[in-house]
Amino acid sequence: MQSHIYTVSELTQNIKNLLEETYPILWISGEISNLSIPSSGHFYFTLKDDKAQIRAVLFKGQARNLSFRLENGLSIVGMGRISVYPPQGQYQFILETVEPKGRGALQLAFEQLKARLHQEGLFDASLKKPLPFLPKRICVITSPSGAVIHDMIQIMGRRFPSIPIQVIPVRVQGQGAENEIVAALDLANTLQQADVLVIARGGGSLEDLQPFNTEILARAIHASRIPVVSAIGHETDYTIADFVADLRAPTPSAAAELVVPEREALKASLSELNLRVRAGLERSLRQLRESLVGIQSRLVRPKRFLADRILAIDDLQNRAIGSIQRRIHVARERYLHFKSMIFAYHPGRWIDKHQAILDRIHKEMMTHLSNRIAQKRHRARELVASLQALSPLAILKRGYSITQTLPGQQVVTTAETAPETSLVSIRLYRGSLICRVERSLHGEDDI
Questions:
Q1: How far apart are CA 153 and CA 367, in angstroms?
Q2: At what angle do helices 147-159 and 252-259 cross, to 10 degrees?
Q3: N or C, where is the chain less crowded by C-beta within 10 Å?
Q4: Mean pLDDT, to the nearest integer, of 331-353?
Q5: Contact call for residues 425 and 432 (beta carbons, < 8 A)
Q6: Cα–Cα dist 20/86, whole Å
């Protein structure tokens, strides 16, 4: 017998049918990881424990009903069914409902919203608006049928009866109550008749207070231009609205006492202040009066005071004029001094002065040179005359001659110098003679 051969689609479909029939509905617990939210809005993630994991999906329609956000690391308990996705041959768990494991959904949603708004800065103390000391009108947003509004009206009326109280009725519990509270906040901000808003509700469970833990109400309180006081639940009940509000009152009754001052206490304070102010004024007037008397005693008669001042002014005027005239005189003297100095040291004047000196020196030098030249010329004439007197020509002119040997040009001073037959040259005053020695005479008497 031949075995049946399955196609992939046939086998996958059989496995899908088997799983869906075996596990129609079941509960599963695990930790979320690999969370992804594509544009389709469906949530795809992995559920795992310490030994295994399974693909899971939460479709957009079911996710819209969650009061908290899915995130990685969150442990959940979910109800759903097993199915197979044939195109990929993968089985996955399709969740219908999801609850956080170990914590309630509302508590988890509260913590997640609180953390997110805190990160955005909606709880910053610097953004809190101050409450008016004495409000002109108070607007209370609460249920008109509860005991809360009656208690608040009674307390406010007892503390300060003349302050008008405006009540905007809303539901403070149940689905859609947060939208009515938000609308009431918008209405109060539009009317601008009250200068402080109180959102009030008595105590209750976390489910009862859920409208005050919604993001829409938190952002409406944050956007309010009028200061908002939250008076929700009892002292231990904290809501998101308490963190966003400008002031949190532990109870609605406490809110009435915080918002409205006690008139009798104010009157007593005003009386005490009035007495202190009056006493202070009287003390100041008494001190001023005493000061005035003292000043009057030190004051002189106005006419005498004016006469003294006039004399003082005249004296100051004369001294000022004298001082100015002295200054002018000193300035004029300095001006003339500097002017004479400038004239004395004027370059043209200096040049003229030294030019005269140069002319005088030049004239003296020329006179000196003329004298020296004349002296030198006279001395030269004397020397020339002396030279002329000592000149050999002058001796020759008197008839003397100079004999020289030829060709030796030796002056003949003795007869031995010119032997016989030798030629001699005889220099006369005018001209010379060439002679031959006929005879030499050696004695002076031989001539």
A1: 138
A2: 30
A3: N
A4: 85
A5: yes
A6: 13
Residue 71 to residue 385: CA distance in whole angstroms: 149
* 3-state secondary structure (DSSP) of residue 247: strand
Residue 444 DSSP label = G
| pTM tops 0.70 | no
Q: Are 404 and 427 in contact (CB under 8 A)?
A: yes
Tokens of 382: 């004397």
Rounded to whole angstroms, the Cα distance separating 190 from 220 reads: 13
Length of the chain equals 447
CB 152 within 8 A of CB 252: yes
Decide if 114 contacts 61 (C-beta within 8 A).
no
Which stretch of 45-54, 84-93, 386-395 has the lowest confidence by average pLDDT? 386-395
Give me 189's structure tokens: 């901000």
Q: 3-class DSSP state for residue 98? A: strand
Task: Report how far apart, in Å, the C-alpha atoms of 201 and of each of 123, 249, 440 are.
Answer: 21, 11, 187
More confident residue, 440 or 403: 403
Q: How far apart are the first and last CA of the chain?
A: 205
Contacting residues for 243 by C-beta, under 8 A, at least 6 apart: 114, 117, 118, 122, 123, 218
**pLDDT at position 71, please?**
87
Burial class (CB in 10 A: 0-12, 13-18, 19+), 228: buried
The confidence score (pLDDT) of residue 438 equals 86
The H or E element that residue 243 is part of is helix 240-244
Rounded distance between C-alpha atoms, residue 184 and residue 178, angstroms: 10
Task: Name the residue with tokens 């086998």.
Answer: 11
Percent of the chain having pLDDT more than 90? Answer: 47
d(CA 107, CA 74): 14
Chain Cα centroid distance, residue 408: 120
Q: Which DSSP state fits 2?
A: P
Say if residues 150 and 250 touch (Cβ distance below 8 Å): no
One DSSP character per residue, 182-232 reads HHHHHHHHHH---SEEEEEE----TTTTGGGG-HHHHHHHHH-SS-EEEEE
**Using alpha carbons only, how large is the chain's radius of gyration in Å?**
71
C-alpha closest to that of 435 among 427, 425, 445: 425
Closest CA to 237 of 214, 256, 261, 212: 212
253-265 burial code (b ≥16 CB/10 A, e <16): bebbbbbbbebee
